[in-house]
Amino acid sequence: MQNGETSIKKALEKKAAYGPDIDLNKYKVIRDQKVIDKLEDAPKDIKERMESVGITSSKETERDGSIMFIDNKVSHCSNKAPEGVEIMPVKKAMEKYEWLKDYSWKLVSPDKDKYTAKTYEEDADGTFVRVKAGYHVKHPIQACMMLGTEKGMQTLHNIFIIEEGAHAEMISGCTTGSHADDGVHIGVSEIYVKEGAYFSYSMIHNWGPKTSVRPRTGIQMDKNSRLINNYVILNPVATVQSAPAAWLNGEGASCQFNTICLAHPGADIDSGGTIFLNAPGTGAEIVSRSITKGGRMMARGRLVGNAPGVKAHLECKSIVLEDGGQTLAVPELETSFADVDMTHEAAVGKIARDQIEYLMSRGLTEDQAVGMIIRGFLVGGIKGLPQELTDEINDAIEKSDLGH
Amino acid sequence: MHMLEIKDLHVEAGGREILKGLDLTVEEGETIALFGPNGSGKSTLMAAIMGYAYCKVTRGSIFFEGEDITHLPVDERAKMGVGMMMQRPPNVVGVKLGDLIKTIAKDDEEILRQADEFRMDRHLDRDLNVGFSGGEIKRSEILQLTAQNPKLVLLDEPESGVDLESIELIGEKIHDLLYNTELCSRGMSKVNRCVSALVITHTGQILDYIGADKAYIINDGRIRCSGRPTDLLKEIREKGYKECISCRMVKLP
Lengths: 404, 253
Description:
The complex is a heterodimer of chains A (about 400) and B (about 250).
Chain A: H1 5-11, E1 28-29, H2 44-51, E2 65-70, E3 73-79, E4 85-89, H3 90-96, H4 114-121, E5 127-131, E6 141-147, E7 152-162, E8 167-176, E9 183-193, E10 198-206, E11 211-221, E12 226-233, E13 239-242, E14 245-248, E15 254-263, E16 268-271, E17 274-277, E18 283-292, E19 296-305, E20 310-320, E21 326-335, E22 340-349, H5 353-360, H6 366-379, H7 387-399
Parallel strand pairs in A: 1-7, 2-6, 5-7, 6-8, 7-9, 8-10, 9-11, 10-12, 11-13, 11-14, 12-15, 13-16, 14-17, 15-18, 16-19, 17-19, 18-20, 19-21, 20-22
Antiparallel strand pairs in A: 2-3, 4-5
Helix pairs in contact in A: 5-6, 6-7
Chain B: E1 4-13, E2 16-26, E3 31-35, H1 42-50, E4 56-64, E5 67-68, H2 74-80, E6 82-85, E7 92-96, H3 97-104, H4 108-114, E8 127-128, H5 134-148, E9 152-156, H6 164-178, H7 181-184, E10 196-200, H8 207-210, E11 214-219, E12 222-227, H9 229-247
């Protein structure tokens, strides 16, 4: 941020490198929203939307911490494991901890594009999670980001710090309220995984068919840390453009990006990710499984080997269910070291007829067979998917009427 | 009423006519062995009975228990009672054997309990056929068929790619499948088979376990000769298919 505020002001007009451009002037940031003291008391329509993205309300006890944003307002925050977890709005955390400024806007640059610049300019609040050194979170932490107003724009800035030797699982559920559809969600997330720490972070999306989504994520990983990032979009959406970046700066760090997407008709999903393997012995894997059912699906992935002895694999697999859908896999591998093991695998095609008929010959209808193969394609072979997430995915596939 | 009746069946696959007017009937409880050189149309016949899309019926018809199934989809045939053991079934990544069994079996708990008898208990959590050995594929197929409970089973080289120890297990399990007690108890004596079978075999080994009532030699898309399985096998071993086919007139039982 050496250039300071002028470059950020300029960046407010800067289009992103990928994805359709959004005219942010059409949308307004809503700061005033309802407060929900207890999630179980949330209105029924909000509850339903929360639950569709893995955010529980009635069984809140199964979550070690919960936070919820409706538009730009913190609507709820509760903590069941204060001994090891801190969860609060970022702004409050910034007031509480002087040192937090060293973590803010360090992994995502405010002048990256108009979406980060807007979030910066809004001085957006967001979720702060800190898991203290050595603490193992028993139940997942949950964060719900809900776009609550038609023509609304949600800008959030999150900071997660998983300290030395800590273990944590977190679920972010992103969704629209029942009265909102046309809207923009921008979420800037900065994630720090310290030495020996483990972080499993799953994002489940259930937006409206007119919602545009622009997450901006940066991840820093120290020695022997491990991160699994799951990104799941199975419901209709207008446009998504996401390209998290991870810097594996400590020896032995390992990072895995899993993306599971279903592009409905009219959807434009551009999902990528870059992992920089900056230290010896680091490992990375980018796995993308997508299905287009008439929508457009871009699966990008880039692995950069900046140190000897790194191991990295990239896998983009896509099924085109119907003509008219478009899919493009762009795998990139880059290094200037001889001693690296970096591979990629990309496959695009339809579901093999012989597999469908094989299952049908056991008495499954064609729809059942296609559904079973798609479920297997999307979640099978991906390591580290939490069971709860797999169940959510199966449920969403069941509802999305994929057989035809 | 015949279990299966095939009349003047012509089938195209891969742009070529493979079956050229094949006639065949299978009675309830009857096991028929099919011999014939590679490429003669044996597997295509089974695939056509099951209804796989790559086999295009251009003429003739297939009746199952008196009903014309020539143009029925695969799953409807399966539900009527046709079951197939493929020689090389496809890999289905992400679909676990145990999950498929749960979907198809009427009493899935019972079948899953039996999985260890098939030596497949440790495969229930594995993706269907992915990395399975020859014997594992066959045992998985029979386990699935057992769950499916068919009236007619199509067995495409059940002993191919299988070690000797596995052949015994596979033979016994197919035997159990054919002497299906649930179907047999419908008024029939338990010693009689009541599940019908077509079995393709090159070695005849499987017949030591399941027996066969009749055998046919298929060549160039038609049935060329018939006889007792042991006689035909002996003749093929001694003289080869060519001799056997040329010296016999087409004579259907």
